[in-house]
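S., here's the first fold you wanted:
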Amino acid sequence: MGNISERLELIYEQVIARNPGEREFHQAVREVIESLEPVLERRPQYAEHKIIERLCEPERQIIFRVPWEDDRREIHINRGFRVQFNSALGPYKGGLRFHPSVYLGIIKFLGFEQLLKNALTGMPIGGGKGGADFDPKGKSDVEIMRFCQSFMTEMYRHLGEYMDVPAGDVGVGSREIGYLFGQYKRLTGRYESGVITGKDPAWGGALVRREATGYGAVFFVNEMLKTRGESLDGKTCVVSGAGNVAIYTIEKLHQLGAKVVACSDSSGVVCDRQGLNLEVVKQLKERERRRIKDYLEFVPDAEYRQEGNIWQIPCQVAMPSATQNELDEEDARALVENGCLAVGEGANMPTTPEGIKLFIEAGVAFGPSKATNAGGVATSALEMQQNASRDSWTFAYTEQRLEEIMKNLHHLCWQTAEEFGQQGNYVAGANIAGFLRVADAMLALGLV
């Protein structure tokens, strides 16, 4: 066992040396590697074939210049990325993120997480991620179109429905997907619907795709509670963020009988003890693109805390759905002390390692992002199926498929954790189950 621990530590040190300064990527790799000691004990062939080392090195990393012109005729230069991490299970699949914080380390962390997340869904898709350090906030539709067209002019040569299929992520919604697909179609001369997902249902998108990440996270949390003889019905919840994932997490929580009392954006936290009015949140965020503090214009009895901490608000279920590392050890301690029973990650890696450790030690049911937020990519894979068959499915049928996938995914994580002596530890279960699916495919394909 000691030798295995030393080997895993050496692999991690090599990852740091080969990828200097990429803190988020280091964190994602560390979390997975720490789960794999019992796997290598039982299956030494993974060590012999250096599967972990190969898994941590992307198959391809693409960095390119994105020049574009704003409405004042001023020229801007952004940097675009696509990391094609692993295609052992299928074509690369993962979203595009447009945000000023984007750099190679963020994209690699997201791509690494995406690879294992996609494997957990059971769908035939590999893992990748991309984006640009472009900020869509405050830009006109025409400026965003110009940027998307410039981005796709370089990116299109690396995409294809059997090669790499991007989707949306932070800063990339159906508007951006439309501009990106339009440029791809223009450059290739082909209406290749399956080359990108997250499309508007009017022209090839899947119903439920917009809701899928939030809905899927709630389905997973409900399954976690069921293992403890509980359910979401009647539970008080808080959901960080006020974007797509947060909004549809709130919607499904309400549908299952829970009461969401708080959400947030980058400026502060709104708390409504009677339960958030979701229609007001949607109006502010989806239609008018306003700040969450304006919620008080519609619900004067609510509270607003500028730069407040949502995790100080007592709840039984917490769902971090904003950004990476938003919930630290101190926040986790406050949640535990206030009686939190379950945490489901809607964002990618929103809880720090110290926070995760505290939750697990305290007996809180903790759903890691690679499991809980897999509903988005699962529904993207369903969209690919519809595009390939020239078919369209109803909202109810697609949601039913999503719920089945999330229930199966929960069962896989639970069962795998139990098999490897980590009962109830969804972090270990998700990491091991995702790793095994990719590792076995890599072994079958040979040294490629």
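And the second, which I think is the more interesting of the pair:
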Amino acid sequence: MDLVIRGGTVVAPSGPFVGDIGIAGGRIAALGGAGVIDRGAREIDATGMYVVPGGVDPHVHTALKSGGTRTLDNFLESTRAAAYGGTTTIVDFAIPDNASNQTPRAAFEQKLDAIAGQATVDVALHACVTGVNDESVHDLRSLLRSGLPTLKMFSIYRGDFMLEPSEIHECLKEVEAANGLALIHCESPHIVEPLIREFGNNGQTDVRFHALSRPPAAELDMVQTIIEMLRITGAMGYVVHVSTPEAAKAILRARRDGVRVWAETCPQYVFLEESVYEAAHGELYVCSPPLRDDSRRAELWQLVLGGHIDVWGSDHCAYSTDQKTAAAGDFRRIPNGLPGVETRCPLLFSKGVSRGLLDLADFVQLTATNPARFAGLYPRKGVILPGSDADIVVYDPEARATLSGSGLHMTTDYTPFDGIEVEGCPRTVLSRGRVVVDEGKFVGSAGHGQFIPGQSPKPPFSRPRTYVHHKQGSKAGSGSTRTIGQ
């Protein structure tokens, strides 16, 4: 073996076991009980640690141009930050630049060029369409069948990314024909745009009006519209960054009714809430959809714990405080998006696993296996099985860290989760058998990461989760068991 990880609690599809993982040629070659696998050229002692598949972040924006502003990172920087946070595959977006009439294929090729020689862990891509015409539909058909089986569409951001409902419907038919998967940003322009105009005309442009201009009804309205389009076309759909329990429940009801639709949420929607827009520097928290009130935030977290949210993404956008504050007095001009590729997994581990609210198998499903299935990367990614890529993270459940902009590695000077203490941190991270984070220090290199083409998506089977609730300060493995979300 090139490398053997010994003595950790390995989270495999059949269940966790204490044992060893043998790695050869960048792949997982063997799994076994303690001491069963022959000695490796290098060995990692994972005694007392959790050994999980490398995270797959399905929602990362690297070098995103939006509204005249560009996020700050390149693929070296976004993938390095991902590795620090226990993510070994990011899925970015090949979004055409409408200002230059860029085609979907040209956007894809531009992203490939940007990935090559920069990425430190692997990268997959979602195709994107920002306008429907003969050329874009031709590109879409080709891309869906040649390594980009997922298509991102926006129902908002007129002039930049937005598709009209009729255009979304046309693209959904192409997605269904290719056995692909549609990802949709769901906010209704007929609700949002009049509110933005009204607030602007009244001089109500401070940051608190960002959330007021994009109410929960705007998300739910578009989610229900997309559900009916999916019902009619038969396509598979995935609603990104679900921010309200109302939308999540509508998706759940539709799936129970036979519609092939699933939900993603992000840490900001369950660990932050909209009162930050009233505080100093509320512009740092501007994202779309916006953060919601505390009762919605709490209910959405319960839906995550109950197994009714399918994917945990980041929606990473690395803007700086300077970029955010430059237009602090006018919410319409503040760049939308929050940095989060590095904090995505540690936050869920700390708030879920370490507190006994989420078991390790469910953590893996949300952060690795399900995202890999939706992106068409499973079983190469997102699972610990012989033959899968040796993308592996060794978590130290006792490690603690306090999140801060200066202490993280994303290409920005702040984190919206500043001051939050996390319990349980990635100690060692492997990408295709190569150690890229060693004892918390980055040892990877630009160019190791590769573009990974996707195959047909394999959506997961969803079920309610049972979790063990522990009293504060108790260790995992004790407490009472109950099922929630039913």
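Why I say that: DSSP finds 13 helices and 23 strands in the chain. The radius of gyration is 21 Å.

Talk tomorrow,
H.
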